[in-house]
């Protein structure tokens, strides 16, 4: 039995943690070695889902608010920007 049949990652993939892979993808993107569409395609292939970037004209729309603390911080920041 080999690694392809038993559900384990390939030997060269098993040594790299997911966080490091994400950092590698980000580095490739920042250095311009892969386009945004190319980066999304690489990630899509790896996780088996289709991921497409959404580019917004105003960066304030992309802020993630998932709890009361982050909501207060974002509210203050947006209030400072718009004043």
Model description:
This protein is 53% helix and 0% strand. It is elongated and about 45 Å long. The N and C termini lie far apart (65 Å). Helix 2 (18-30) packs antiparallel against helix 3 (36-47). The mean pLDDT is 77. The protein has two domains: 11-47, no CATH class; 56-83, no CATH class. It has four helices and no strands. By secondary structure, it is mainly α.
Terminal-residue CA separation: 65 Å
Low-confidence stretches: none
CA-based shape: elongated
What percentage of amino acids are in beta strands?
under 5%
Helix content: 40-55%
- Main sheet specs: none
Total strand segments = 0
- Total of domains: 2
User: Helical segment tally?
Assistant: 4
What's the pLDDT, averaged over the residues? 77
Rg: 19 Å
Would you list the SSEs in sequence order as H and E? Answer: HHHH
Structural class: mainly alpha
Write the layout of secondary structure elements.
Layout: H1 11-14, H2 18-30, H3 36-47, H4 68-82
Give a brief rundown of this model.
The chain is an all-alpha fold and 83 residues long.
Structural descriptors:
single chain; 83 residues; mainly alpha; 4 helices; elongated
